[in-house]
Structures are given as structure tokens and as C-alpha cells.
Write the C-alpha cells for this entry.
Amino acid sequence: MAQFNDPRLPPEPGRIATDRTPWLAAPRVFSVRGDRLHPIISGNKWFKLRAWLMLAHQQSVRHLVSVGGPYSNHLHALAYAGHVLGLATTGWVRGPAPKHLSPTLVDCQGWGMALNFIDREHYRQRETAEFAEWACRGLESAMFIPEGGWSPEAIDGSSAWWRLAGVDLDALICPVGSGTTLAGLVRSAPQSTRVIGVPVYRDPDHYATLIEKLAAAGVDAGQYTLWTGFAGRGFGRLSAEQRGFMADFEQRENIALDPVYTAKTFHALQHCLSFDSDLREQRLGILHTGGLQGRRSQIGL
Ligand SMILES: Cc1ncc(COP(=O)(O)O)c(C=O)c1O
């Protein structure tokens, strides 16, 4: 396998320097610029994926298999990493085979990823061991990577965010999908910094599954705060207010956001700043977790 210090990959976490941008409209708020880490494997993707790639290397795996939607940042980053490292990749994609592939999937295919489409019913089982086994069936020396990269190693890898964020913050805010990033941040947070997560999907069970999953990874509910109520119209879908915020923010701050994760998270912070005067007094960091390739889909816009 090619080396992890290949110049086509992002730098090693140990060599990442603090990179923050103050908000013009709220100078005590810093965007932690994961979007600047790398043009393709940006934001949290590298911190999570690197752990899986190391594992694949140790186990002499030759084929990486995963699952995601047609605009998945995860499949996009995996296909690219596989291409650079000389590993075969297969992506199981939610939904029927489309007439025209999304720009995300066109890139994946260009980097050699084999694409297979599965119906939504089957996709719902993606977190089971049976699905992982089924997805790798017939593939030689294959390893399944769950959507979102959730694993103890990826949680540990996500602690690398603190190198970008610095340690002089009262609170650090991040989007929550699988919760891997939140778990990694909480585990390695400086004592004086609170971690706040913004789930980007609706959950009628009040995020009980997420909270249980985090607890099973040793992250107790008392160690973080969830700002719920900012999922908009659902995963990948913005409300009119969020859409308006995204356009204004991008123009004012000159920072591009993605419609799935960062637009919702940045909007949540701006909303909370508008009524919480204590919060306005604090030094706050907010993760820009990248995902800008997903803008091409214009989902929810
Ligand atoms: C751009 C972006 N931000 C945030 C997240 C959510 O991170 P996590 O799944 O670790 O909660 C993801 C998903 O991996 C993502 O692609």
C-alpha cells in the first residue's frame, strides 16, 4: 500500500496547525477551518478515515467497502483515498440506480470505486453485522467501513480536531451525524471547554439511540450538550430560514457552507447567539467539517 505521507493525502494529524477564522459579525466566535485541510478529503473525513486505513494496512486488507447516499462525503473521500493508496473500493449506494449519476458518484467512479445500488429497505439495515457481511460477500480480502466511520479508532482519530481548534475556547460546537466526531471531541476536550453537538437529522425518539451509542463508547450525556431543533426539514433539507442564513453568511463572512452539515450548525449557533447574552460573552469555536463537494447536489437549496 502507498504511504500515508503521500502528498496527495491530507497532512498527518500531528502536523496540523491551528487554523481559525474569526466571524466578522461575532468576533469571539472562530470557525475551525477543517474545510481547508484538503480539497477532497476535507473536514472530519480524514480524522475518521485515517484510522480505518491504518487498520486496513495492519490487516493487509486490499478492498474497502462502504455504504452511503448518492451525495455522500464519506464515499467520496473513501474512493479518493482508495485510489491514492492503491486499494479497491466498493460503494453500496442508497436508492435505485439513477439515469444520471450525481457529481459525487461520478467522481467516485472516476477514482475506480465499484458502485452498487440498494433499495431503501435494505439500506435501513446498514448498521447490522449481517449487512456488513453481505456487502463484502465474494470480495477478496475486503473490510467493511460503516457509514460515518463509527469505530473506537475513528473516535480517537477525531480528537485531532483540537489541533485545529486550539485549547483556549469556552465551548466548541460541531455537527452530529453518526456522532463519531462529537465522541472524539468530548473524550479529549480540555477541562475548560464544553462540547456542543448539533444533530442534522430529525429523530422522533429525541436522539435516544445516539445518546445510548455515545454512552456505550464511554461518553456520558452529562459530558456534552445537544442543540436539537436545528435539523430543518430533515437530513439534507434546509428550512427557508436556514437557506436564507446560508446565503447571508456566505456573502458576509466569505466562508462557503454545505447544505447538509455546516449550514445547519452555523445557523444554530447564530440563532443561539441572538438570544443568549452569556453565550455572546464566551470564546466559541465552531467546526467547519468540510463536505463542500456536496454543494454540487444543491440538496435542500
Ligand atoms: C461534512 C460533514 N460534517 C459532519 C459530519 C458528521 O460527523 P459525524 O458522523 O462524525 O457525526 C459528516 C459525516 O460524516 C460530514 O460529512
